[in-house]
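fyi for ur records
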Amino acid sequence: MTAVGDSTTTRSGGGEPQSVDDETREVTETVMAASRLLVAMSARALATVDDALTLPQLRTLVVLDRCGPVKLAALAATLGVNASTALRMVDKLEAGGLVDRKTNPDNRREVVLRLTAPGTTLVHRVLDQRHQEVATLVGALPGAVRTGLVDGLRALIDLADDLAVRPADTGRAAPELGI
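which gave:
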């Protein structure tokens, strides 16, 4: 970075000076494009395993797989939806045999949601499929680019502090969800 008067500039890949605002815009657009790519990969992986399941349903299953048995309120908070939306999602997944509800042994007035064995199998098949596609794509990158990608993405994740997966009622981040 070089300071020019009051504005800070950087040099883009072409060696042209670029303002911090322009650089931020370029990085933002690139991250958004990568996000669309990852969503598309998730959709393809899901379609190869179960073409009737939606991405929001998959996300719900992944949360249940990674966070273990949870109450509806915790699931809704982790997904960032209201309880009635989470309940409708759980109803559909339960009807499909992927989720079940059990009485909380510590408080018989509460219901705990958990994946069934078929739900767990489905999640792992979809995530394995997506992992293979991402690994193929990343494996085609030169080593230096992979290193830079890892460093940049780790910094972005650390900065975000896993806010997207922090259950509201626990105040702690859930394990990496891989969604």
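The longest helix spans residues 20-49. thats all i got for now
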